[in-house]
Amino acid sequence: MGSIIMQKKDILIGLLFGLLLGFAGFLIVVMLFSNGGTSILENYSYLKNNGSIGKVITLGAVPNLLLFFFFLNKNKEMMARGVILSMLVLTIITLLL
Prior knowledge:
Elements: H1 2-32, H2 40-49, H3 53-60, H4 63-73, H5 77-96
Helix pairs in contact: 1-3, 1-4, 1-5, 3-5, 4-5
């Protein structure tokens, strides 16, 4: 029984790391491809008005690939599954925006 709980915990940890890294990557890409606005919200509005927010979310999720392979290299398969789950969540968010 403890093994199942550990697996769920590892998947949750991978999910959280994946979402946090995806959000951090999103912020970095927003700042890199900004129009010179002074705040992140202004840059976000600019990118949303240009219709490129989905592309920015996708580029921000690229570091998750590195995280995925890091977890696989450390034999943390359940955490790697959590990262894949976070990519699914980011994909759904991209489709909704």
